[in-house]
């Protein structure tokens, strides 16, 4: 198995670290359909900042390609493409199915295809395998085999890395499950957990983020309630947190490629089986509505301070879905921007981590460079980048005019350092 060539399909936040780690020990083909991504990686750079140049250089057995023909050399395929939702919050398996077609054209007898993308239970065997069979002309569990090992990459997290997070593994046959488990055990020092089946592994992944989503929804709802009571939510959570088993969740915008997306995969499957989830969807509604709530609170505060809302200028600091990370996928900061603009507010967005071209392409937002001092009626600290933490509240306030409002959405600073926070 150690001599078999392995191919990783999709070189984003999940696929690249995986390809690099395997590439330190065995022959690996890193495949991506984006030619510009391949060119970038061949120069030893990674714009996602998940892999440093020295780590790329250490993967001596890794080659990059955008040519599907090169995949024919591989015997093990790991698919790590995005699994988003569409505008109606329905699972969009298009990237996954297209990747399955690509792999199907390279599939040979005895090969193993492993999926890491987040899906609903049953998707691997019910949606992906038929594509592999149709394109390859081979029979599942006779000619080729499948595994599922859900990704647990946390973008921007330099402490919890691929090798230090327990890896859940599974296979379509007992023998395949053992092979997949040994494969990941060779690079994951934290160890593996071999699930009973592919469906169990799929379900485990999708509930990891559903659980976090619901916990955040609870504190978001508490923040809304305490706001009406005139109680500081952060102070309440600190007090409650003195109990040993109180979970340390904080209110905020819930975006990104996982927490704000994965629950819809589970609810989609449940509804297809005739069950309408109530708690999960209620949590999603609360979290999806937080952008409007934040904007509404900002506008109310401006009115109380007799700031003319229509035509006012507000600076939003941060656009990425989380701190110290360039990832813009499914960021909910855009909800705050949209809502403020609907009130007639002129909004500028500044984020030293975000790629300006990507922000324009994905959201139609023109990011600004260094903000002008004394130019704004309000400042919203939306993402807790270290850059903003280090600058401090006094420096961030200097972007505002006299009497401007400062909203610390992430409660980064002390309560008396801001005019408004969740």
What's the SSE blueprint?
Layout: E1 6-9, H1 15-23, E2 28-31, H2 35-42, H3 53-58, E3 62-65, E4 76-79, H4 94-104, E5 112-115, H5 123-136, E6 145-148, E7 167-169, H6 174-185, E8 192-194, H7 198-229, H8 233-240, H9 262-272, H10 279-288, H11 290-304, E9 313-317, H12 333-342, E10 346-350, H13 356-363, E11 376-381, H14 386-397, E12 400-408
Parallel strand pairs: 1-2, 1-4, 2-3, 4-5, 5-6, 7-8, 9-10, 9-11, 11-12
**Beta-strand content bin:** 5-15%
Q: Uncertain runs with pLDDT below 50, 5 residues or more?
A: none
What integer value in Å does the Rg equal?
Answer: 23 Å
Tell me, rounded to a whole number, the average pLDDT: 94
Distance between the termini: 52 Å
- Outline: globular
Q: Count of helical segments?
A: 14
How helix-rich are the residues, as a percent range?
25-40%
- Given the helix and strand composition, which structural class is it? alpha/beta
* Order of strands in the sheet with most strands: 3-2-1-4-5-6
**Largest sheet: number of strands, sense, barrel closure:** 6 strands, parallel
| DSSP summary, beta strand count | 12
Order of helices and strands: EHEHHEEHEHEEHEHHHHHEHEHEHE
């Amino acid at each position: 198995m150690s001599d078999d060539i392995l191919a990783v399909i999709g070189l984003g936040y999940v696929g690249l670290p995986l390809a690099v780690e395997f590439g330190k020990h065995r022959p690996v083909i890193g495949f991506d359909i984006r030619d510009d991504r391949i060119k970038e990686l061949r120069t030893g750079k990674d714009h996602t900042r998940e892999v440093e140049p020295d780590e790329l250089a250490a993967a001596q057995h890794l080659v990059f390609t955008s040519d599907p023909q090169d995949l024919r050399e591989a015997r093990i395929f790991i698919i790590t493409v995005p699994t988003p939702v569409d505008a109606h919050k329905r699972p969009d398996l298009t990237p996954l199915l297209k990747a399955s077609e690509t792999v199907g054209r390279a599939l040979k007898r005895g090969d193993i295809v492993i999926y890491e993308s987040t899906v609903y239970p049953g998707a691997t065997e019910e949606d992906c395998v038929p594509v592999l069979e149709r394109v390859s002309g081979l029979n599942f569990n006779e000619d080729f085999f499948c595994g599922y090992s859900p990704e647990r990459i946390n973008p921007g997290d330099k402490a919890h890395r691929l090798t230090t997070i327990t890896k859940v593994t599974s296979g379509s046959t007992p023998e395949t499950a053992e092979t997949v488990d040994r494969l990941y055990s060779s690079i994951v020092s934290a160890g593996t957990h071999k699930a009973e089946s592919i469906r169990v592994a799929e379900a485990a992944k999708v509930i990891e983020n559903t659980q976090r989503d619901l916990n955040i929804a609870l504190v978001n709802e508490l923040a809304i309630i305490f706001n009406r009571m005139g109680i500081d939510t952060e102070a309440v959570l600190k007090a409650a947190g003195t109990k040993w088993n109180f979970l340390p969740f904080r209110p905020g915008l819930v975006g990104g490629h996982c927490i704000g997306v994965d629950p819809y995969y589970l609810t989609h499957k449940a509804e297809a089986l005739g069950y309408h989830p109530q708690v999960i969807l209620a949590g999603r509604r609360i979290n999806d509505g937080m952008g409007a709530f934040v904007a509404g609170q900002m506008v109310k505060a401006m009115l109380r301070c007799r700031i003319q809302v229509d035509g006012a200028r507000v600076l939003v600091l941060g656009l990425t879905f989380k701190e110290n990370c360039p990832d813009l996928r499914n960021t909910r900061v855009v909800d705050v921007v949209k809502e403020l603009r609907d009130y007639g507010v002129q909004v500028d967005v500044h984020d030293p981590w975000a790629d300006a071209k990507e922000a324009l392409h994905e959201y139609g937002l023109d990011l600004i460079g260094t903000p002008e001092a004394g130019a704004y009626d309000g400042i919203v600290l939306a993402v807790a980048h270290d850059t903003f933490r280090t600058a401090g509240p006094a420096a961030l306030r200097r972007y505002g005019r006299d009497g401007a409002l400062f909203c610390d959405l992430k409660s980064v600073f002390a309560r008396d350092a801001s005019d408004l926070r969740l």
